[in-house]
Write a structure and sequence with these properties.
It contains 9 helices and no strands. It is mainly α. α4 runs antiparallel to α5. About 60% of the residues lie in helices and about 0% in strands.
Length: about 180
């Protein structure tokens, strides 16, 4: 059994992963132009990368902006530099301004509906699923549904898994780090 510390954890290359994961690497290269280091790290598991990507790409009642807001606040709460960097880039691609992204990282938004979502996602993350009645009530008061609540929890779990993986492995960040945001 290998005894590696986080500082010794290396990102596997295409040649170091299973045939199935090599095909996924090829598809990621076609779609993104590269294989993000954290996805490559999941490929240490022969089945983990496909399983995770299927979960991450499943249909949801949340729109892309809402998903990115959840991803960013969860990554902020979990202090994951890798995912914060990725979701600042993806947040901009989904129409958020630098100021809006900074607000989300602070756990707020000037849009009441998005604010309720961000605050609930932060509350769920900080309190390991034991969100306050107030944040849940505000979420529903802004027009969100029980379906949305389930999808927020699933989004939090998706991002928490990635945050934990990076926080443990400390693989290099391969997204631009927007230090001003």
């Amino acid at each position: 059994m290998e005894n590696l510390t986080a500082t010794e954890f290396k990102v596997p290359t295409r040649e170091e992963v299973s045939q199935n994961n090599q095909e996924i690497f090829d598809n990621l290269n076609k779609a993104l132009g590269f294989v993000p280091n954290l996805y490559a790290t999941i490929a240490y598991s022969d089945n983990g990368l496909k399983r995770f990507l299927d979960y991450q790409n499943a249909k949801t009642s949340l729109n892309n902006k809402e998903k990115e807001a959840v991803n960013l606040i969860v990554s902020q709460v979990n202090e994951c530099v890798y995912c914060q960097s990725a979701h600042l880039v993806l947040g901009k691609m989904n129409g958020f301004s630098d100021e809006q992204l900074l607000d989300i990282r602070k756990g707020t938004s000037d849009n009441a509906k998005l604010n309720a979502l961000v605050q609930l996602a932060a509350d769920i993350t900080e309190n390991r699923g034991n969100a306050s009645n107030e944040s849940v009530a505000d979420f529903f008061a802004q027009g969100y549904t029980k379906e949305n609540l389930v999808d927020v929890i699933l989004q939090v779990s998706d991002k928490t898994a990635m945050n934990y993986l990076h926080n443990l492995t400390k693989v290099p960040v391969d997204f631009p780090i927007a230090e001003s945001i």
